[in-house]
Specification:
alpha/beta, 20 helices, globular
Length: 526
């Protein structure tokens, strides 16, 4: 690690010299080269960021108080493009790169994690810009240097993880009011869970006199087996993959998937799950649960069923049934449902910008680091001090009634860089919308056990498409589910994916990277 840091510091020195010279030409003082907020007072720099968010938010909005604050603080003209993750997002990036006009900074959300772009020399070397000196908040509060090192690909520093929430919120939720009506307890085993599904389907849990409810519900998006199914956990497959006995256990490609399919087919044949689960798209399964069509669902966010979230499963369900009471539970007792959270997708910088105007990337790093600090966090998560919240010591008192139309969506967009984890910054939040029930729900889901994380990020070999492998995997699994109606042939189908769609190469590289990371970590601990 010391060698990495020494190289970084040397590289920074070279960059600082270049930026200083650039600044002197433009009339900056020699001492201002790293003070982003003091640069270009009479000649604003224009920056373009591309992030995940609501589609269509691709032009500067001068009514955006967060945008205005950033532009004033850093003397910058900022264009923010926000597109929902998926095909449209990746196609937009590809088209901008083809036109030699990429954003200065973007979130790389494609399946290979930026491997191809790195090898194509599209991404800037981040050694100059992402260091404990240039981004102190980022390193102090969110990402340590070991995590950053394990995030690299092909021994190149061309991507860095966005700050991530280290708490897991994955949990199943169940209608407690239905259980009460039926005189049943919260299920603590898979067999008890099945009994509850049967009762929710056939015993009129909502007491409306109609046969119109099911047990479990999820969405298959018409393309694959949802990873929400408890049958994965029942067969020892945790979300999304884990390392045991010197092997990577991928929940979607393990040999036990055949038994998972058979177990799902059993509950489908019994009629105790939503029969249209495969065709449900996006959050349609949540909408159905809101309308009382099912009594068990999986949630993966902190506010999935909180009273204080106006869009939560709980709040929306109460509009249709004032007795609705969704509570978290684990149908497998103390069995983990997933591994510890790890860094997800990275932010990257444009190599075109690095060559033409490296000071723009230093400025971009300064803005991102400000977002990772207390001041930026407060603004992007809670709004304006004195209007949307007040601060007393380290306690944030929210005033949600002060939020005007569109401002809540604005906060969601601008909080792209940091998770909703104020405790990381030493902050406590007092939200008048939070109920005692909310506190109990949060305590329950954050106390659920998790399995040890992988310790590194997984990227495929150069030129190998994980997307192609997953597409074929899904094709075979859908065939088992709806044509074969059996998981018996999964070993055969799996072998096709492993041999003909690079599965062997992909998982071999994944495992080698995990072993190397664990070996390094063990050496550092000695």
């Amino acid at each position: 690690m010391n060698g990495w840091r020494a190289g970084a510091f040397a590289a920074i020195g070279l960059l600082v010299a270049g930026v200083t010279a650039f600044g002197l030409i433009r009339g900056w003082s020699a001492g201002s080269q790293l003070n982003a907020s003091a640069q270009l007072e009479d000649d604003q720099v224009t920056l373009h960021f591309m992030i995940n968010g609501t589609e269509g938010a691709d032009e500067p909005n001068r009514q955006d108080f967060i945008m205005a604050a950033i532009e004033k603080k850093f003397n910058v003209r900022l264009r923010l493009t926000a597109i929902e993750p998926g095909e449209a997002y990746n196609e937009t990036i590809a088209s901008l790169l083809a036109a030699n006009d990429p954003p200065d900074m973007w979130l790389n959300i494609n399946a290979d994690g930026g491997v191809k772009y790195t090898m194509d020399n599209v991404l800037a070397d981040m050694t100059y810009y992402v260091t404990p000196q240039t981004m102190p908040n980022y390193f102090q509060y969110w990402v340590d240097e070991q995590e950053l090192r394990e995030y690299q690909t092909n021994n190149q520093f061309a991507r860095a993880p966005i700050p991530f929430d280290r708490k897991s919120y994955r949990a199943y939720y169940i209608r407690r009011d239905w259980l009460t009506h039926l005189g049943m307890d919260i299920p603590r085993s898979y067999d008890e869970y099945l009994e509850v599904l049967r009762a929710f389907t056939y015993n009129d849990p909502d007491n409306n006199g109609k046969n119109d409810t099911y047990g479990f519900i999820t969405s298959g998006n018409g393309s694959g087996i949802s990873l929400d199914w408890p049958e994965y956990i029942q067969n020892g497959l945790l979300y999304p993959a884990y390392f045991a006995d010197d092997q990577l256990i991928d929940m979607q490609m393990d040999l036990r998937v055949g038994q998972v399919v058979d177990d799902i087919l059993l509950v489908m044949d019994e009629g105790i799950v939503d029969p249209n689960w495969f065709l449900n798209k996006g959050n349609q399964h949540v909408d159905k649960a809101v309308h009382g069509k099912a009594g068990v669902i999986l949630g993966d966010t902190s506010d999935f069923a909180l009273d204080s979230n106006p869009d939560s499963l709980q709040t929306r369900s109460r509009k249709f049934n004032t007795e609705a009471d969704w509570i978290p539970f684990n149908p497998f007792g103390q069995q983990p449902l997933r591994i510890e959270p790890s860094p997800e997708y990275p932010f990257v910088f444009s190599n075109i910008t690095a060559g033409a105007a490296p000071e723009k990337l230093m400025l971009s790093a300064s803005i991102l680091d400000w977002l990772a600090g207390k001041e930026g966090f407060l603004l992007t998560h809670y709004g304006l001090e004195g209007k949307h919240y007040t601060l007393e010591g380290n306690t944030v008192f929210l005033h949600p009634e002060a939020l005007e139309a569109g401002e809540e969506e604005l906060l969601k967009k601008w909080s792209f860089f940091t998770p909703k984890a104020p405790e990381v910054l030493g902050l406590q939040v007092n939200d008048p919308r939070m109920t005692e029930r909310d506190e109990r729900v949060l305590q329950a889901i954050t106390n659920m056990p998790v399995y040890e994380k992988l310790g590194t990020t997984l990227t495929p070999p150069l030129g190998v498409s994980v997307e192609a492998m997953r597409a074929k995997q899904n094709e075979w699994q859908v065939k088992m589910m709806f044509s074969d109606k059996s998981g018996k042939r999964w070993p055969e189908y799996r072998q096709d994916v492993m041999s003909n769609y690079k599965g062997n190469e992909i998982f071999q590289q994944f495992e080698e990277k995990i072993r190397l990371a664990r070996k390094r970590l063990a050496g550092e601990r000695r």
